[in-house]
Amino acid sequence: MQPKLKSKVRCTDREVGEVTKVIVDPLSHEVSHIVVGGNGAGTLERQVPMAQVETVLEDAVQLRASSTDLERFPLLKRDEFVTIKEVEIAHLEDHLHVEPGEVLVPLPELERNVKRRTFFANFTQAIGVLVALPLAVPVLRYLMKPMYAPLDNRWLKIGNAGKIKTEDVGVQFKYKKKVKEAFMLEAEVDKNVWVLKASPAVLEEVYKGKDMDFHDATGRLLWTNKQNVPYVVYSGKCPHLGCGYKWRGHKVLGKVFLCPCHLSIYNAGGKVLDGPAPRSLDPLPIRVAANGDIEIIDMEFKAGTKAQVRIV
Amino acid sequence: MNGQPTAIEKIVAFVDERVGLKTLQAKMLNEPVPGGSRWAYVFGSVLLFIFIMQAVTGILLMFYYVPSADHAYASTQYIIHEVDYGWFLLSYHFWGSSAMVIMVFAHMSQVFLWGAYKKPREMVWLVGLALFGIVMGFGFTGYLLPWDQRAYWATTVGVEIMDKTPIVGDFMARFLKGGPTPGQMTLSRFFVIHVMILPAALMGLAGLHIFFFRKAGPAGPFRGSSEELKAKTDYFFPRQIWKDMVAMGAVFFTICSLAFIEPVVLLEEATPDPGEYHPEPEWYFLFLFQLLRLKIFAGEFGQFLGAIALPGAFMLLLAALPFIDRSPERNIFRRPIALVGWIIVMISIALFTVSAIINREFLD
Asked: Residue A52 is inside which H or E element, if any?
């Protein structure tokens, strides 16, 4: 039991005063000293270690010392202490039971029905749910509005095949694409694709002996790349994580498509030669006019997946 | 001093009478630091300081910055080239973000090595991990705002990585981008996240972090008997605060110097054609970037493994740490697994970062 504040303090011979303060050890959280003051000790307050306390009763503390011995204990130097209200020691209050009893405040008449309090607590939560639930769908729909834009199946002129001089060499075509996003004015962005005048061997690698069909979102056939048309166009987006790749010389592999981001390497036929890419480069629908003008459908596919998933 | 209170004393007394200011202040400052103040304990305060400075510089940047695809770049260039000291505030904000990441690493390492995440400080640790996520989120979203090529491509790749999360990945990526590809909607979303959602979350969680920390109390050193610790104990004020202030000053000086020496320079305006630019994330994401170049993380599953599963598992491990590691032993030299684990993680991050930098040379 901890000595209570205001407890009478008795020495072996007589009562000497009361516990005016207690001192707590900040590490162990135990009461280390009592401060004895009041009538018997005069106005002086002395610091008595708990080791000198023989017994602690509900309202009294019995010391081992006699009243004359008491004067040997040091006087309290108040400015060497702070009160527990002025210091933050974790869980200190949990260990302290030095207040003599509890201080009570009456519960108002209307608050004495516990059932009703529980009801109101639950009701508050119910109101919260009633507010939040009807909002959930509108808020989600509000935020989701631009997420699933329709696919863009327009043909786009990107340049003339006349600029391609050599077979099986990646040639970058840069072009402007008009974009109209939500409320924004129509703007132009720079994009690029890689076009190849492909040899029969490379065509075989791209088409694997079959014409290549392209569909719209509903599955309707948009276009078929004929396997004997010698022009192949690859989306400029690396199928690994969507960076832009380049046509570069490689010490061992010769001329290749190389993505500088994560070093995926593809051959002219788009096949992955090295690096982390999960699939070949993405061929796009291409049509070449008699005068050499190249048109494409500027599709984009999700990067990082084994299967082609069209997103634009 | 003739006993008459001055006007300021009267005002303080007025406020104190109503809100208990003095007790509150005393409680804030009189927090015993077991074993005494140390330079090792400055990181938390320094982080708070960096955050406040990021908030101040961030608010100032918003006076000119316009978060729209057709003005973001121009308004950022305007801040850099036209507005008086705009270059400095922007560069401070930029380098401040790096300082934040470094300090988060230092803070987490200190707590980890000192075993301060253990009982009864599990909640402090968990909230701290959430704060770590928020700091990373700040870095990622803020990076897009200048709307230059660096910004655009870091976001493109970053969101593609998120897309690899099973089941919800596609939804998350589209939700964040506000469409299939980065554009105005992405910029709007990143802006709101960067200037509203994350700051609010950070302030709330940082408050909770400090509250939990104060409730649990500082852990103190991992060595020494309780008598030794008691003999060396002092209060948060003044010795620890002094050390914190010196550290803040040093960090402030370093960030300012970096802003002067290496002010922010934008690349070309963002567009889906990278041109000659080789996309790369900010340095603190470089190790992850380099990791994804590894052959074992190739292909769809490999990518999920490297980009989602591995970092996710690492974060889960950190979160579970205080519940797995229940031994009360805090001395790092008696926790060989923890020590070796920390060294391996740090060396791997350093190695991958350095190799990413070395790799740059072979790309032109």
From this structure: none
Q: How confident is the model at residue A114 (pLDDT cuts 50, 70, 90)?
A: confident
How far is it, in rounded angstroms, from Cα A226 to Cα B161? 34
A86–B164: do the CB atoms touch at under 8 Å? no
Domain span at residue A228 reads 155-297
What's the Cα-to-Cα distance from B147 to each of A147, A190, B152, B305, B328, rounded to whole Å?
20, 14, 6, 30, 49
Instruction: Give yes or no: residues A178 and A293 share one domain.
Output: yes
Nearest CA-CA distance, residue B179 and chain A, Å: 4
Write b or e for each residue in A232-247: b if 16 or more Cβ atoms lie within 10 A of its Cβ, otherwise e: bbbbbbbbbbbbbbbb
Query: Whole-prediction pTM value?
Result: 0.92
**Residue that the structure tokens 């400015």 belong to:** A79
Write down the residue that tokens 């290549």 correspond to.
Answer: A212
Residues A76, A190, single domain; the answer is no
List CB contacts (< 8 A) between A303 and chain B.
160, 163
Domains defined along chain B, listed by start: 38-274 (1.20.810.10)
Handedness of CA B158, B163, B164, B167 (dihedral sign): positive
Asked if residue A42 has pLDDT above 60, the reply is no
Domain co-membership, A85 together with A202: no
Q: What is the pLDDT of residues B285-330, one digit of tens each?
A: 999 999 999 989 998 899 999 999 999 999 999 999 999 999 999 9
Last residue of a domain, one of A45, A62, A95: A95
Domain end residue (candidates: A74, A95, A116): A95
Tell me the per-residue pLDDT of A232-261, one tens digit each, with 9 for 90 and over.
999 999 999 999 999 999 989 999 999 999
Among residues B149, B148, B145, B177, which one has the least CA distance to residue B163?
B177
Residue among A181, A244, A305 minimizing CB distance to B185: A181
Is residue A132 domain-resident? no
A172, closest residue in chain B (CA to CA): B275
Surface of A (92-131) touching B: CB under 8 A:
none
CB within 8 Å: B279 and A260: yes
Number of domains chain A is built from: 2
Mean pLDDT of chain B: 95
Statement: residue A41 has pLDDT above 80: no
Flag whether residue A141 sits within 8 Å of chain B, measured between CB atoms.
no
Quick check: A109 pLDDT over 80?
yes
* A154 burial type by CB count under 10 A (0-12 exposed, 13-18 middle, 19+ buried): exposed
Q: Are residues A205 and A292 in the same domain?
A: yes
Check residue A216 and report its DSSP letter. Answer: -
B360 contact partners, CB below 8 Å, separation of at least 6: B278, B280
Tell me the two tokens of residue B136.
Answer: 């990373």
Q: For A189-233, what is each residue's pLDDT tens digit? A: 999 999 999 999 999 999 999 999 999 989 999 999 999 999 999
Q: Is the pLDDT of residue A40 over 70?
A: no
* 8 Å CB contact between A179 and B183: yes
Same domain, A162 and A269: yes
